[in-house]
Design goal:
This protein is α/β, with parallel strands linked by helices. Helix content is 29%, strand content 21%. The protein contains ten helices and 14 strands. It has helices at 29-38, 57-66, 85-94, 121-136, 184-193, 211-221, 241-248, 268-280, 323-338, 351-356; strands at 18-23, 44-47, 50-55, 72-81, 107-114, 146-153, 156-162, 202-204, 261-265, 287-291, 307-310, 343-348, 368-370, 373-379. The strands form two sheets. Strands 2-3-1-4-7-6-5 form a seven-stranded mixed sheet. Helix 2 packs parallel to helix 7 and helix 5 (184-193) packs across helix 6 (211-221). It binds S-adenosylmethionine.
């Protein structure tokens, strides 16, 4: 793999380690880095929008397979300087594409340019597409699943391949989606930020389609989030199906014998959806869902204290008083009355709604973009008796 910055005259070393960038939602970089450390990716560097590390192709496969908080994994396959389009064209034609890309797999090229003499993104893309067509025999298709990204920054051209394909929050085993589902990657990192590692019980009293339950049960059962889906890296040179199959089949932790993730919702449709999703993901053994309004919230029977995590509904207009505030006040009252020893995590865009619970929240986490708004995680220590 080419070093960064890439010297176009240097010999190419396909087996050398290269830079891998794991993208996540802004605000969650530190949480992703902590997850990566726990998953055995030791030397990582936090950057805006993600975490970088140096590795080889099996590290790329494993990052895609096991990291719950990753949106996508980019392989930085090399870079060179280009001061004008003709130079970009010439160097792109000398780039060793065949070490990474297959001529029989269509791909699309995306270019971004900042502070650079080559500023015309479409013209730059055309040069790279020409080099790929003529040098590699590749088919360029704007609809292709495989994506080659060129970032031109201060005249440095860096090529990355999106090795994930469909974004990683699409786990590949969720059937039904509710009205305002939380993205799986966010749910997983919020759980981690609440100190949840799957070993204790989890309760979502407004579970909707069950995103927190699915992520929590996955963690409890030691299952990899990418176990059922396909990835773009399967279509690259150097992909080893046997080694990948062995990695995917690696033994999980010993799964618990009883349900570990409990969900309630007042809406029968949401309950049915969460159950269908648990079934589809092969997690029914560890997830228990029931129809129940917040006003009747009690801890699951026979369960030691664990984590209550909830993403209540919120209004379009932040700070709007009324039924939502009353709902949050009821939630807080039920938790304060019956959940001694449980920790609480609440995800909301509205600080006034968080405070309407009357719960002793620690300072909130950073704002995280989600569906056109910014949400924050509010956490408590174990609630007093
Ligand atoms: C924002 S959604 C939760 C989405 C969920 N985290 C997911 O990923 O699908 C809020 C949920 O709260 C439920 N809900 C609203 N009011 C409730 C109440 N009083 N008691 C119980 N559930 C309630 C709604 O039915 C809805 O499913």
């Amino acid at each position: 793999m080419a070093e960064t910055p890439h010297d176009p005259d240097a010999p190419f070393e396909p087996d050398a380690p290269f830079e891998i960038f794991v993208a996540t939602a802004p605000g969650l970089e530190a949480a992703l880095r902590a997850e990566m450390r726990a998953a055995g990716f030791p030397k990582t560097l936090q950057q805006p929008g993600g975490v970088a590390f140096t590795g080889r192709w099996p590290d790329v496969w494993r990052a895609n397979l096991v990291l719950r908080g990753a949106n996508r994994v980019l392989a930085r396959i090399g870079s060179f300087r280009a001061m004008h389009l003709a130079q970009l064209d010439k160097r792109a034609r000398r780039f060793p594409w065949a070490d990474v890309l297959r001529p029989d797999v269509a791909l699309r090229v995306e270019v971004t340019s900042r502070r650079s003499k080559v500023y015309h993104q479409r013209a730059a893309a055309q040069r790279v597409e020409g080099a790929l067509r003529d040098g590699l025999g590749a088919r360029i298709d704007p609809e292709a699943d495989l994506r080659l990204m060129l970032r031109i920054d201060d005249d440095l051209c860096t090529f990355s391949i999106d090795t994930s394909g469909a974004p990683l929050h699409k786990r590949g085993h969720k059937e039904a989606v509710g009205k305002a589902p939380l993205r799986e990657t966010l749910a997983a990192l919020f759980l981690r930020q609440c100190g949840h590692d799957g070993s204790g019980p989890l309760l979502d009293p407004m579970c909707g389609s069950g995103t927190f339950l699915l992520e929590g049960a996955d963690m409890a059962a030691g299952l990899a989030p990418g176990r059922t889906r396909r990835f773009a890296f399967e279509h690259l040179v150097g992909f080893d199906p046997a080694a990948w199959a062995a990695m995917r089949a690696a033994p999980a932790a010993t799964p618990p014998a009883t349900p570990m993730a409990f969900g309630y919702d007042r809406d029968a449709g949401a309950v049915a959806m969460a159950r269908a999703n648990a079934d589809c993901a092969g997690l029914s053994r560890w997830i228990s869902v029931a129809e129940r309004p917040i006003g009747a919230l009690v801890p699951p029977e026979g369960t030691p204290p664990g984590l209550v995590i909830v993403n209540p509904p919120y209004g379009a207009r932040i700070g709007e008083p009324g039924p939502l505030r009353a709902l949050h006040a009821t939630l807080g009252a039920r938790l304060r009355a019956g959940f001694a020893g449980w920790r609480v995590g609440l995800v909301t865009p509205d600080p006034q709604l968080a405070h309407a619970t009357g719960l002793p929240f620690l300072p909130p986490g950073p704002p995280v973009p989600h569906g056109g708004i910014k949400v924050k995680l509010y956490r408590t220590d174990p609630l007093p008796g």
